[in-house]
Structures are given as structure tokens and as C-alpha cells.
Amino acid sequence: MQHDLDPEIAAVLAETVQRFGPAPNHLPGNPVAAREDVELRRAFVNLGGPQMREKRDLTIDLAGRSIPARFFVPEGETRGLLVWFHGGGWVQGSIDTHDRLCRALAAGAGTRVLSIGYRKAPEFPFPVPLDDCFDAFVWARKNAETLGATPDKLAVGGDSAGGNLAFGVTVRLAAQKLPVPAAHIGVYGVYDCDLDTQSYLAPFGDGRFGLSRAAMAMYWDMYCPDAKRREHPEASPLRAPDMTIFKRPYIMAAGLDPLRDDSRRMRDKLVEAGGDTVYAEFPHANHAFVHLGAFAAVSRETVAQMSAHLARAFSV
Fold first, then answer.
1. Mean pLDDT per 10-residue run, the chain (316 residues)?
2. Which residues face 54 on adjacent strands?
3. Which of 28, 31, 242, 285 has its CB 3.0 to 4.6 Å from that of 289, i.e. a possible disulfide?
4. Is residue 201 within 8 Å of 214, Cβ to Cβ?
5. Residues 252, 222: contact at Cβ < 8 Å?
6. Is residue 140 part of a domain?
7. pTM, 2 dp
8. 252: which residues sit within 8 A by CB, 6+ positions away?
9. Cα 105 vs. chain centroid, distance in angstroms?
10. Beta bridge mates, 222
């Protein structure tokens, strides 16, 4: 099998390096500098995209803390609400870095989107980021009608570490006997703490396509320093004892990604459990390619697929 990167993705990655230089290795010593660099590079690829009828920042006020969020309402009639958790290894990323993606999903699916700015590692390790995401989802369900949706038409989604958090939220909801989301979107998610799958090793683990096995090991060390705790289903949703809790899942994998096999294994367990699972794998795409919709047709295609899946889920 050829391991060739999509030429449109390769071109924009090369342009990013030309504009900003090679990505500096600030982690793990300086997470603040690492976040600033990611914000700068992502702002470039976030340009353009659909306009919203409404886009506003809000604060989810909870006991002892507040969680920032961004609310998107597309043009036209809407149905349902997607609660989105951004990626970035639980360390980087923000509602700003994922702004264009959330707008694209809102417009494509005809749904409202609430993007959550959870606290990040290493300052706030597991389970704090998950606590924020869980409480934000519970708040969204409680306030669904105020947000223009209904409690039975809520979905969760996320990319990379955000996919981990989205599925982790459902693990906790089910454990507490609370209603689970109507649909799940997992974009090259981190579903397990096992770093010895085939895709983590050769030929993708060396970082030639961006993300490396060493980087994921570092992210796990910052997010959940206690290796034993990583095996808990809230941290590794692939280990959930009951996979039927993940309703209407859409699982997407990038073929040139160390995390590819996480998605394949999640797909296999969901199918084995009898779930209504949709799986898509893009063989010539790398980790984080979903953000390149302004430049690459394959990125627009996966957003279109996710949008269609959400629209179907909310029409039931």
C-alpha cells in the first residue's frame, strides 16, 4: 500500500511551514508557548468558511467555576444541538482553533453547535478536562430549549483528544444512569491508551505525517500521569463494558495517522455490539486534516459526511 499524502494537504502544510517555519517543540516544558504557536498556525487555515446567523461567546456558570463556550447558529431552519470538544492532546487547542470546523458542521448539518473551552493539561490533568466536558453537556441538556433545541436531540463530538472526551462523557453519563446523547461524532479520536498498535508503530509513528507516537506518549503523560488510571473507560472509552451506550456513532479515521487503529478498533467493537455505526477512513489524509477545508477537497468531504450523519440522526 502506498503511503502518499493527499497533494492538496501536502501543499497547505508546506505553505504553513513557509509562512511560520517548522513547528517548534515547546512541549512539555512550555505548554503556554505551544498553545500560542498552535493558535497562530490554526488562524491561517481557519480563514473563510460559512457565515452564521448567530455566533456568540457565552459562559457556563457552575459551582465554583465557569467554562467558556461558543455558540453557533447557521442560516435557515435548524434541528438539534451538537456539543463539540476540541482536540489538541488535552493540552492545546481552543474554541478559536476549531471555529471554522464548528461553523462548517453547523451549516452543513443545519444544526446548532456549542463548542466547549474545557480546562487543559498539564495544569489540569485527568479527570478535570472530562469533568468540564461532562458538566457542560449536562448544562446543555438542561438548557436545551433556551439554546433552540430539545433534550432528546443532542449529540456529542470531537476530534483527536476531543473525540476521547466526547465518548468519555457518554461513559460517565451511562455510569450515572443519565440519558446518553442521540449521536456521536469521533474524528480520528484517541479511544485507548495502548500505544503499541500497528499504526502507532511503522510507518506512521515516526511523525513523518505530523503526529508521532512519541508526541502521543507525551500527551498521555501530561493528561493522565498515572498510567493505571488511563485504563479507566472514562479515559480509554474503547474499554467501556457496554458499547451500546454510543448511539448513532460516526467514526472517522485518517489513513496516515498513528491513531488510525484506535478508530478501526472502536469501529469493530461498535459493530460487534450491534450499533448503527458509520465508519469512514481517508487513506491519504493525516492527523488534523479536517481543519483544511479551505484548501483540500478531502477535508470538505469528511465534514460533509459528518454533517449528513448528524442531519439524519436529528431527523429521527
1. 85 94 92 96 92 98 95 97 98 98 98 98 98 98 98 98 98 98 98 97 88 97 98 98 97 97 98 94 97 97 98 94
2. 73
3. 285
4. no
5. no
6. yes
7. 0.97
8. 185, 186, 187, 188, 263, 279, 280, 281, 282, 290, 302, 305, 306
9. 12
10. none
Half-sphere exposure of residue 146, counting CA atoms within 13 Å on the CB side?
A: 8
pLDDT at residue 47 in the model: 87
Determine the pLDDT at residue 2.
58
List pLDDT tens digits, range 109-142. 999 999 999 999 999 999 999 999 999 999 999 9
Answer yes or no: is 2 within a domain.
no
pLDDT at 120 (0 to 100): 98
Please identify every residue annotated as catalytic.
160, 257, 287
- Asked if residue 272 is part of any domain, the answer here is yes
pLDDT confidence of residue 29: 94
DSSP assignment of 249-273: EEEEEETTSTTHHHHHHHHHHHHHT
Pairing of strands 112-116, 154-159: unpaired
Give me the CATH number covering residue 303: 3.40.50.1820
Whether residue 122 has a cis bond before it, omega within 30° of 0: yes
Nearest to residue 245, comparing CAs of 171, 194, 314, 185? 171
Structural domain of residue 55, as residue ranges? 7-315
205 in a structural domain:
yes
Specify the residue for cell string 476549531: 98
Helices (H), 31-78: 31-45
Counting Cβ atoms within 10 Å, is residue 274 exposed (0-12), middle (13-18) or buried (19+)? exposed
| DSSP bridge pairs for 52 | none
**Domain count within the chain:** 1
Cβ-contact 200, 264 below 8 angstroms: no
Percent of the chain with pLDDT over 70: 99
C-alpha to C-alpha distance for 255 and 261, rounded to whole angstroms? 9
Angle (CA) 93 99 103, round 5°: 145
Q: What angle do CA 135, 137, 143 make, to 5 degrees?
A: 105
